[in-house]
Amino acid sequence: VNEAELRAYEDRVRHQAAPDLRAVLDNLNQALTVVYTAVAGNTRTPLPPAAAETIRRQFAAALDRLREQTDYGRIRRGLRDAARHAITEGARGVDHDVQVSPVTPLDVRWALKGLTAGLRADLADAARLVRTGKIERYSDLTSMATVARRAANRLDRASTWIVHRAHNEGVKRAAEKLASQGDRVAMLWVAEANACATCTGYAGAVAPVGEPFTPVMAVGDASGRPTGPVWTPPVHVNCRCSIEPFFGPTKLRPGDRPLRLRREAQRAVAAGQVQASEPAKARAADRLVSLADELLLTKTTKRRARRRARS
Ligand SMILES: [Zn+2]
Fold first, then answer.
1. pLDDT attached to residue 13
2. Is 87 exposed, middle or buried (0-12, 13-18, 19+ CB in 10 A)?
3. Which helix (H) or strand (E) holds 195?
4. Neighbours of ion ligand 1 (CB under 5 A)
5. What is the 174 CA–ligand 1 centroid distance (Å)?
6. pTM, whole model, 2 decimals?
7. Can you tell me the distance from the alpha carbon of 132 to that of 126, in angstroms, rounded to the nearest whole number?
8. pLDDT at 9 (0 to 100)
């Protein structure tokens, strides 16, 4: 399964699992725009104060209703089922015949638990802002709608993270099952295209079954490094790195996939093709240069990394 297919699968699963809060909020925004233009004539003219108060009441009431009537239990159940499905799919991708437990891992359960409180808080914050903020112009209304949309962003972020995490968990469980049956198998880290510097450092890392991943090259800033053992990606919000089984030898030979992924990652850091600010890219390149001998950097990569480190 390639990265694009995996993303399409995950998007499909999470759309089925979670209601489209974004569409609800967009509809609300549209309805408010209709009211605004009906009263003010167009979106460039300020509102008369009385009309502004009416819109304020309607907007706040709609956000309160949304907060009270959203079926959080259904969201949680939908995402939990999606996670179970993703675990099974992840395992099937490794080996069609291997059966793994679909029980959701602890961190997924924590994420589901925190989601309800987070969504409620987002919608409450937005309603509070609508009740107290200045409403004169159309732009005041759109900035309030942006705050309300944080709930939709949170739901998107959480469901992406949960489904992606679960899919990787499925791969990990399948590898564990195969290893317990005597197969020689390890787990291989595949960084997403344009990953952050920390994740790029894990690209091509091989973790024996039952052991956490350790980075191949610690080129990311300390502040971005995961704390505690890393069993599977995602390691941060929006991390789309994945793992795959590696059936190759413990002693890697030139041309093996882990080594190719590592070389690709070295080139990405040297070329500044990591998700980071320009200064962070330079720091990553600088760390790469200091690891040059250990990582057996090619001359070209080393030269590029030096140049980027100085930039
Ligand atoms: Zn990542």
1. 82
2. buried
3. none
4. 195, 199, 239, 241
5. 21
6. 0.89
7. 10
8. 84
pLDDT tens-digit readout, 25-83:
999 999 999 999 999 999 999 999 999 999 999 999 999 999 999 999 999 999 999 99
Place of tokens 């509102």: 47
Report CA(247)–ligand 1 centroid distance (Å): 22
For residue 227, how far is its CA from the centre of ligand 1 (angstroms)? Answer: 14
Q: Looking up tokens 């971005």, which residue turns up? A: 224
Q: Ligand 1 mean position to 118 CA, how many Å?
A: 23
pLDDT digits (tens, 9 = 90+) for 139-148: 999 999 999 9
Q: Which two three-digit tokens encode residue 213?
A: 């991943």
Q: Which residues pair with 206 in a beta bridge?
A: 188
Ligand 1 centroid – CA 221 distance (Å): 14
User: Which region holds residue 281: left if phi is over 0, alpha if psi is between -120 and 50, else beta?
Assistant: alpha
CA distance 234 to 108: 11
Distance 7 CA to ligand 1 centre (A): 14
Q: Which residue has the tokens 């200045």?
A: 134
